Amino acid sequence: MNRQPQWLSVALWIALLASILTGWSPLYWPVAVSISALAVVAVLWGIFGGQLQLVPELAAVVLIAAWGPLQMLLNRSAVPAMTIRASMTWAGCAVAFLLGSNLLSERRARHLFLKLLCWSLALLALEALFQYFLWPQKVFGIFDGPDSVVGTLFYRNQFAALMEIGGAAALWQILQGRTVIGALCFATTLGAVVATASRAGAVLMGIELLAFVALTLAGKARARNSRSVILVVLTFVLASAAVVGTDTLWDRFQEKDLFATRRELRASTLSMIPEAPVLGTGMGTWRAAYPRYATLDASLVANEAHNDWLQWMADGGIPFFAFMAVLALRAGTKASADVWGLGLLAVMAHCLVDYPMRTPAISFLWFTLAGAACALRREPDYAEGRKRSIS
To answer: Which one of 51, 115, 136, 234 is separated from 25 by 20 to 30 angstroms, measured CA to CA?
Structure first.
């Protein structure tokens, strides 16, 4: 068995948390903090870690990280500087995957990591609620942030994607026998998403909850007194929605065109793909390539395609899209029965209508958990929880 010191899983979470806590700034320094923090953990792992474990999915991750340098080598990047910058982040994702597949492959280390993740993101959800109601655009009530800031992230859909991961970890807590704690954490993360009015986030967290109920009732995810567990969770969720209010979210759903602007951006991105279907225009170059294909003049800079999947296909070509699809399906399905993997699938679904993976706070965390999922040895994470009663 590949045993690693458990404290390395704590160090890994601290590194990822550093990325999350600095994600509110649109400048480059949060990316530098994220990459540096992961590099420190990688060095510690190299010094104190155990045997290296290589999972089959690592092949796709290596190709993902190498795609930008390959474009540069073949002179197929529209803007080399943008591709270099994007390639650094994708390399960080590969390191995060490797750390996750090794440091979190053992049950106790993985459980410790998931507990830290769940509690930390629940506290960040509370911070976002205080920010929303008491001190808008103030990070921790202290730092001035952009108008779009939510919690510690730059944009509400990035924040919602983070909560999707946290919500799935909270539901996993319930399967460990910590029903009240898990339900409270899930209700808090969902309440923050509802209050900050992310439509996709609210829908996807609702789907996570329905999937949890379905898996529990079907016996795929086991919990003692399943009906009582479900009743407790639903009670907390309804109470959370009542406290934070749903008016703002409901108003956003009443907009005449829910996909305004996104539709035009999607059409323009689709027209980019046939121009370079194999290697793409260069990783990270969508913003520079887009104006040539634009059909909408909104008097604003189009920073992203608002669809990560299409943007990956435009930037990296169809092969890069395929690498990401294979990794997402493998990681999400491997861990979905343990419930925390639902967060991986939710973020990938969110990528269909927005760009949560454009920030290292989300992408590094996602790849870390994907690595942990791919390293699962089919010892269900709910096994210990079955022995406990509802807390």
So the answer is: 115
Q: Could you give the C-alpha distances from 333 to 56, 60, 76, 279, 371, in angstroms and in order?
A: 15, 16, 34, 28, 13
Percent of the chain at pLDDT above 90? 60
Spatial distance between the Cα atoms of 239 and 246, rounded to a whole number of angstroms: 12
| Residue type for position 177 | G
* Residues facing 139 on adjacent strands: 143
Examine the pLDDT at 280 and tell me if it is beyond 80: yes
Q: Tell me which residue of 208, 221, 223, 3 sits closest to 110, measured CA to CA.
A: 3
C-beta of residue 114 within 8 angstroms of C-beta of residue 340: yes
Residue with tokens 């796709």: 60
Asked if pLDDT for residue 223 goes beyond 60, the answer is: no
| DSSP one-letter string for 308-372 | HHHHHHHHHHHHHHHHHHHHHHHHHHHHHTTSTTHHHHHHHHHTTTS-GGGSHHHHHHHHHHHHH
Query: Cα(200)–Cα(357) distance, rounded to whole angstroms?
Result: 14
Residues 348, 98: Cα–Cα separation, whole Å: 20
Helices 179-195 and 199-218, packing angle to 10 deg: 160
Q: Which residue has the tokens 């340098």?
A: 69
Per mean pLDDT, which range of 26-30, 231-235, 265-269, 295-299 is the poorest?
A: 295-299
Instruction: Give the domain ranges of the chain.
Output: 7-387
Report which of 297, 309, 319 is spatially closest to residue 352, judged by C-alpha positions.
309
Distance CA 271, CA 322 (A): 19
**Contact status, residue 317 vs residue 128, Cβ threshold 8 Å:** no
Give the DSSP per-residue string, 124-151.
Answer: HHHHHHHHHHH-TTEETTTEE--TT-BT
Spatial distance between the Cα atoms of 191 and 258, rounded to a whole number of angstroms: 22
**AA letter at 221:** A
d(CA 12, CA 113): 8
pLDDT of 385 above 60: no
Q: Which residue has the higher pLDDT, 382 or 56?
A: 56
The reported pLDDT for the residue numbered 383 is 45
Residue labelled with tokens 């009663």: 389
